[in-house]
Automatic annotation (TrEMBL):
Gene3D superfamilies: P-loop containing nucleotide triphosphate hydrolases (3.40.50.300). Transmembrane segments: none annotated. The keyword Cell membrane applies. Residues 34-236 form the ABC transporter domain. InterPro entries: AAA+_ATPase (IPR003593), ABC_transporter-like_ATP-bd (IPR003439), ABC_transporter-like_CS (IPR017871), ABC_transpr_TagH-like (IPR015860), Bact_Polysacc_Export_ATP-bd (IPR050683), P-loop_NTPase (IPR027417). Belongs to the ABC transporter superfamily. It comes from Pigmentiphaga soli. GO terms for molecular function: ATP binding. This is ABC transporter ATP-binding protein. Keywords: ATP-binding, Cell membrane, Membrane, Nucleotide-binding, Transport.
Length: 237
């Protein structure tokens, strides 16, 4: 079973050595960014998430909307286990796959094939299991003989293709995505879009942050809106 439960989750980012008084007054007047939480003479704290309570059951395809700095990426990073809550508790049941940074864990000097194994380690998949997916990943990447070369010889689009092919080869109970990935040239984008839709259809839970309400309406069945780190609406679509 897959599920996500957040109870009173807050995330604070302490900003050390900032010119506190002027920063505080300019942050308070901004319509963007997290909430200004506390300060002393030396320390300013931004509360990126403020007392979030969420129950996400299996079958939920949740879209996150909100202004710049409202906390969408921070929330995804809590779900990915990148940030531990400053307060409250987050619990996830199921295998989490994060498409937040598809090239995380890659090594420039290693070949494409070697990077498939390396990236598998970051995704919690042993090399033996990754080897059995090698052919399908190679095919989806469309990189052919380039996979034998060190990835420092790749263009940025080629790296993205490889990262994308690897990340989408992993079956996940919980899939985390930041915006629609724009990967590669037009031909690859079309292929990538189809592949994403397949991966999403298989996931039990999707959490997708986006600035495009139309995309969320197309892909998701529930949407929450964040403002300054708080949930201000939660709707079934
Ligand atoms: N590593 C960090 N250190 C300090 N502050 C941070 C850090 N990461 C995020 N923040 C702050 O937390 C708040 C929420 O940021 P977050 O990236 O979650 O917003 P977002 O909704 O994803 O924004 P966008 O739509 O612009 O991507 C912002 O005020 C941002 O400045």
């Amino acid at each position: 079973m897959a599920s996500i439960t957040l109870r009173n989750v807050s995330i604070d980012f302490p900003l050390y050595g900032t010119p506190n008084r002027s920063l505080k007054s300019s942050l308070i007047s901004l319509g963007t960014g997290g909430r200004f939480a506390a300060s002393s003479r030396k320390l300013t704290v931004i509360r990126a998430l403020d007392d979030i309570n969420l129950d996400i059951p299996a079958g939920c395809k949740l879209g996150l909307l909100g202004h710049n700095g409202s906390g969408k990426s921070t929330l995804l990073k809590v779900l990915a286990g990148v940030y531990a809550p400053t307060a409250g508790a987050a619990s996830m049941t199921g295998h989490v796959a994060s498409l937040l940074d598809v090239s995380l864990g890659m090594d420039d000097e290693a070949s494409g094939y070697e990077n498939i194994l390396l990236r598998g380690v970051y995704l919690g998949i042993p090399p033996s299991a990754m080897r059995s997916r090698m052919d399908s990943i190679a095919e989806h990447s469309g990189l052919g003989e380039y996979l034998n070369l060190p990835i420092r010889t790749y263009s940025s689009g080629m790296r993205m293709r490889l990262g994308f092919a690897i990340s989408t080869s992993v079956e996940a109970d919980i899939l985390l995505m930041d915006e629609w990935l724009s990967v590669g040239d037009a031909a690859f984008q079309e292929k990538a879009s189809r592949r994403l839709e397949e991966v999403i259809a298989k996931a039990r839970i999707l959490v997708l942050a986006s600035h495009q309400p139309e995309l969320i309406e197309r892909v998701c069945n529930r949407v929450i809106r964040l403002e300054h780190g708080r949930v201000v609406s939660d709707e079934i679509l």
